[in-house]
Amino acid sequence: MQSTDLIKPIDAPTPTKPGPTPHVSAADYSSMYAASLNDPDAFWAEQGQRVDWMKPFTKVKNTSFEPDNIDIRWFEDGTLNVSANCIDRHLADRADQTAIIWEPDDPRTEDARHITYAQLHRSVSKMANVLRDLGVEKGDRVIIYLPMIPEAAYAMLACTRIGAIHSIVFAGFSPDALGARINGCDAKIVITADHAPRGGRETPLKSNTDTALLHCKDDVKCLVVKRTGGQTTWTDRDYDCNALMAEASADCPAVEMAAEDPLFILYTSGSTGQPKGVVHTTGGYLVYAAMTHEIVFDYHDGDIFWCTADVGWVTGHSYIVYGPLANGGTTIMFEGVPTYPDAGRFWDVCAKHKVNQFYTAPTAIRALMGAGNDWVEKHDLSDLRVLGSVGEPINPEAWNWYNEVVGKGKCPIVDTFWQTETGGHMLTPLPCTKLKPGAAQQPFFGVQPVVLEPTSGQIIDGNDVEGVLCIADSWPGQMRTVWGDHERFEKTYFSDYKGYYFSGDGCRRDADGDYWITGRVDDVINVSGHRMGTAEVESALVAHPKVAESAVVGYPHDVKGQGIYAYVTLMNGQEPSDELRKELEKWVRTEIGPIAKPDLIQWAPGLPKTRSGKIMRRILRKIAEDDFGALGDTSTLADPSVVDDLIENRMNRG
Ligand code: WTA
């Protein structure tokens, strides 16, 4: 990575075509930011008017980061409904405007579909009635395990319409992972589809769901959407979504929800144990998603917005569905992958739908950069105004390519740092500000970043400093708790550094005061922008009968950002072989999903441990990085010879 000192800010580019006046200018930013910290109640009371309230709030911010009393409430006495805000309130002016453009996996066999706000209203109301008829009530949990099809958005909005709490499980997760989440939140029903086409291949979602449900309560129902029409088995608990929706009434009043009623749960990986259910609530989340979507992407009426994420991740929640639809926007839902049918797919879709804001991940940018400029240049990208990046630090090389080849030097790049836990953007440049390739730069309104010294937890003031990134006070989009385990919430985010929200990321504040995210400082790795807990992969590996012990770390990977490096110690009497390596790869895919498959597996006769038996991950990380010259202090190792063997047989050479 280039030294950040060498990077001078560049002016925000001048657009080719005259565009709308930006919502926020560089001068506005400073005064609005100051206002957001000086008087948060006044600032957020005004921003709270972005959404329609059934009963207006009188209280704005009521939050505490005090140890043993982590309590976060925004707009707490107001009531509203998210689906009414994302659909009904737009009907008067935009019933015939496209709300969702759906782009199929294979453009050669299927056409894109345009769904208007009126059509969205009808489908969501019908699906809400179907759920209600199947016994789903306010507060019940609904698991959504769907491909990127319009029904995924209908299902999310249908839940919000009747006050049910959705929890989306990415369609790439295995039956085991799905089952754990169904049980984790005690869901009443799973909404799935027959098959999920992606990149020309199909995942058998219904059959995965059947397998998952073998380990769940008998009364969990399954609502099945037809996507491919491919064969599935049918049991007593299954319901045909298309048939039921055809019969259902299109009239379903939106229920009144308190601002702090849970809106959704999203499972995400942490540094310890199994994934935790991040809980977001109704009012603050929606205000924050709508506001960041409008300001960070400078979204204006009539713009076509495309976020390439999947609704299985938080990015899809906030910037495919809730933010854009709350703003009455037109949002693209893309079922496919960047390289199918060819490496020009993203640019083909941008040109076809005249996309104005395009939001993707560095891993996709790096992969497409490798495919060559021709794929980009043969498409007309002249409608693009703003480019966005999310999920991991973007390396300057990829940033420059994105800027020059995709944006033609005319589109500001907003490098948005945020997390499942934060609900929306936390640190990001705005389209009007100066840009620094690779920096997340500055806080969004109301966000107070602090850099702490990792061991002492002392605040590091001044510029040109590095430490861990914490946030000093609450913002409306913040998660409220871990589903069913508030103690875990406190422990994970508020116990290492008392009085602060701890992000888990390291960061640097440069000489100009701009922030650079340096990556996770905990045992979370970031593979192609997807979070993976090393503990999760380890527990999957040790569940294999031939594995005695395992330690998993990340290592730098050209395209994925980080790859998964697994050290595996076999049970006595088991012989390492390529076959066993393949078996373990397959095992992890089945236990968690393809995204968790180790890239490299090293057979380890032993793991470096302290005398008290703690695995020394620092050493394992260094060996995986092929940087074993600087192993640091190894004097606490119980058996130093283990390390020599690991270095000798390391898998990542140069
Ligand atoms: C990383 C995704 C650098 C970071 C929205 C964070 C980033 C984790 C950026 C959250 C960025 C996300 N620059 N790092 N612009 N965006 N990250 O929960 O390590 O899937 O903690 O949310 O991704 O991943 P999550």
TrEMBL record:
Pfam families: ACAS_N, AMP-binding, AMP-binding_C. The modification N6-acetyllysine is found at K614. CoA binds at R198, G199, G200, R201, T315, S528, R589. InterPro entries: Ac_CoA_lig, ACAS_N, AMP-bd_C, AMP-bd_C_sf, AMP-binding_CS, AMP-dep_synth/lig_dom, ANL_N_sf. Residues 29-86 form the Acetyl-coenzyme A synthetase N-terminal domain. Residues 536-614 form the AMP-binding enzyme C-terminal domain. ATP binds at G391, E392, P393, D415, T416, F417, W418, Q419, T420, D505, R520, R531. GO terms for molecular function: acetate-CoA ligase activity. Residues 88-474 form the AMP-dependent synthetase/ligase domain. It catalyses: acetate + ATP + CoA = acetyl-CoA + AMP + diphosphate. Its EC number is 6.2.1.1. Acetylated. Deacetylation by the SIR2-homolog deacetylase activates the enzyme. Its cofactor is Mg(2+). It is an enzyme of class 6 (ligase). Residues 1-25 are annotated as: Disordered. Catalyzes the conversion of acetate into acetyl-CoA (AcCoA), an essential intermediate at the junction of anabolic and catabolic pathways. AcsA undergoes a two-step reaction. In the first half reaction, AcsA combines acetate with ATP to form acetyl-adenylate (AcAMP) intermediate. In the second half reaction, it can then transfer the acetyl group from AcAMP to the sulfhydryl group of CoA, forming the product AcCoA. PANTHER family: ACETYL-COENZYME A SYNTHETASE, ACETYL-COENZYME A SYNTHETASE 1. Belongs to the ATP-dependent AMP-binding enzyme family. This is Acetyl-coenzyme A synthetase. It comes from Tateyamaria armeniaca. The gene is acs.
